[in-house]
Amino acid sequence: MAYKSLLTVITDADTDSKVLMKAAAMARTEDAHLDVLCLGVDRTQMGYYYAGANALIIQETLDRAEEEAAGIVAAVTEKLKNEGVRFAAEKAVVQIATMARLVAARARFSDAVILRKPYGTGRSIEHEAIIEAALFEGSAAVIIVPEAADIVDPPSRIVIGWNESPEAMSAVRAALPLLKNAGLVSITIIDPPQHGPDRSDPGGALSTMLSRHGIKAEVTVLAKTMPRVSDVLLRHVTDENADLLVMGAYGHSRFREAIMGGATRDLLERATVPVFLAH
Fold this sequence. Notes:
Layout: E1 5-10, H1 17-30, E2 33-41, H2 55-80, E3 86-94, H3 96-107, E4 112-116, H4 125-137, E5 142-145, E6 157-161, H5 166-174, H6 176-181, E7 184-190, H7 204-211, E8 217-222, H8 229-239, E9 244-248, H9 262-270, E10 275-278
Parallel strand pairs: 1-2, 1-4, 2-3, 4-5, 6-7, 6-9, 7-8, 9-10
Antiparallel strand pairs: 5-10
Helix pairs in contact: 3-4, 8-9
């Protein structure tokens, strides 16, 4: 298995420059094709524009979104033309209500989607919506890139946040090409259950599976010495000087297609290295 079709979604050519360069670096390393979805977001809908806006104002907003998308395509093309990667930049104008459908359709046929960190200064609802669409509707693996993260490609030190859940297993399987190239893989378990088939050897079955792929992994068992599991996991990522964190993404909602679970959201808010997610 290898990553041959990569996708990134850009809504601002300047603020999304870091994630674009990460996507280009990964495409170059994997000899993959990079698709760049360049979105102009039209917010003339409930919650984003006042009621009763006339047709002229709505058309002006639509034209502005069209111009933004065209500008993003031009900027992306300029940035990638000398990066030595195969790429295609697609322009689209969307409203928040229809954005998830478009992103999911593109993500479904990609091996991995590289996106910006959805929380923090300068973020809006579309950044979280894009990630949710790729993960939950598009069923794609997603790599979240914080602005402050160093781009190490391929990552040489990887931490796996392991809790035996189906989501964590999906993330490990999707990350196998990266795990095979890493020099250090740490299977990290926080407060393993006291009862169960793996209580005497937590992480042992996963370690055996990875070894059969030629991956040398070590198992680290940590106590929950901080208020949140994410605190312990992020501290371990720092202690290991890791380049990537691999973990399952959790989400559920009766009222939306999907919503980030509290643990996933909390970790993404404070992550300083790229995070590989799968659901």
